Amino acid sequence: MENNQVMKEKVIAKLPSPERRRKGPYALIECFQKIPCNPCYTSCKFGAVKEFNDINDLPEIDYDKCTGCGLCQAVCPGLAIFVIDETYSNEKSLIKIPYEYLPVPSVGDIVKGYDRDGNHVSDVEVKQVRKFKNNTHLVNVAVEKKLEHDLRGIAVRTESRDGEWKPESNKLGECIVCRCEDISMEEIKNQIALGKTTVKEIKLATRGSMGPCQGKTCLPIILKELSKATGKSIEELESPNYRQPIKPVKIGKLVD
Ligand code: SF4
Ligand code: SF4
Predict the structure, then answer these.
(1) Where would I find the 4Fe-4S ferredoxin-type domain in this sequence (predicted)?
(2) Of the ranges 71-80, 160-169, 219-228, which is most confident?
C-alpha cells in the first residue's frame, strides 16, 4: 500500500480546476489500480463518473456533473472516495468521510483525525452524519485547509483518567473490525488470548482481511492489537501483502 505522501501527490494531480473547486463540493477518488469493480459508476445518478468500457477501468470524474452528493462514497467497497468542500469557510474545508465503525459519532463531537498511514493529524469537529441503507455513514468533518488532502479517517474516542485514548464502547462484540467478514473486536481479542501472535494466524482462524476490501480497514487494527499484545512494533510484525479490493461480478460481465 502506498504511503500518505505518495497518495497525496497522486490525488493533488487529479484535482479539479481552481474555478470548479470554488463552486462547491467535489468527489475525489483515490482508486489507482485496475480492479474489477464499478459501484462508483453505477451509483452516480448524475452521470459524473465516466462510463466504464471495461470493469477494470479506473474511475474518472466529470466535474461539470459532480454535485458532491456522496452516493458513490457510500457504496465504494474500498472506502476510496472522499468529498471535499473548499467553500466551507476561509480557514476550513469540509470533508465527507465514509465511516463503518461503532460507535457512530454525533454532530458536535470532537473526533481524532488520521492520515492514510494512521498517523494522528488533528482533532476535528463533526458537522453532519448521514446513514445509508448499507449501514455506511458519511461523516462530515471541518478540517484546516492545509490538511484537506491528508486527513482521510476518523476515530471516536474518549480520554480516560490516565490520559490513554480508549474506545467509547466497551461492547467489543458490537465493534466490527472486519465489515466484509463481520468479525468483531471481541473475536480478534479472543484469538490473541488463545495465543495467536501473527496476522496470518488470525486470518486463518477468523477470515479477517479475506473479504472484498482485502484488509484495507481491518489489517491496521489487527496489527495494532497484536502490537499491544506482543510488545512488538507494527514494523516488526509480519504484515501480509495488501491486495486490491474485490467485488463479485457476473460471469456474463467478463465476456461482454
Ligand atoms: S459525489 Fe455524487 S455526483 Fe459526484 S461522482 Fe459521487 S455520486 Fe456522482
Ligand atoms: S474501489 Fe471504489 S472507487 Fe474504485 S472502482 Fe470500486 S467503487 Fe470505484
Answers:
(1) 57-86
(2) 71-80
Q: How far apart are CA 130 and CA 122, in angstroms?
A: 22
Q: Do 193 and 235 share a domain, yes or no?
A: yes
User: Could you give the percent of the chain with pLDDT greater than 90?
Assistant: 52
Q: What is the 68 CA–ligand 1 centroid distance (Å)?
A: 5
Residue from 2, 33, 122, 138 nearest 79 by CA: 138
CATH number at residue 250: 1.10.10.1100
Domain that holds residue 132: 4-158
Q: Mutation test of ligand 1: which of 46, 60, 79, 140 has the most ligand atoms closer than 8 Å to its C-beta?
A: 46
Taking only the tens place, the pLDDT of each residue in 19-29 is 999 999 999 99
Question: Cβ(98) to ligand 2 under 6 A?
Answer: no
What's the rounded Cα separation, in Å, for the pair 90 and 85? 11
pLDDT digits (tens, 9 = 90+) for 123-138: 999 999 999 988 899 9
| Among candidate residues 124, 158, 192, the one where a domain is terminated | 158
Report how far ligand 2's centroid is from the alpha carbon of 78 (Å).
6
Q: Are residues 206 and 130 in the same domain?
A: no
Query: Stretch 200-206: mean pLDDT, rounded?
Result: 88
Partners of residue 112 on adjacent β-strands: 123, 155
User: Measuring from atom 2 of ligand 2, which residue has the nearest CA?
Assistant: 76
Whether residues 178 and 152 fall in one domain: no
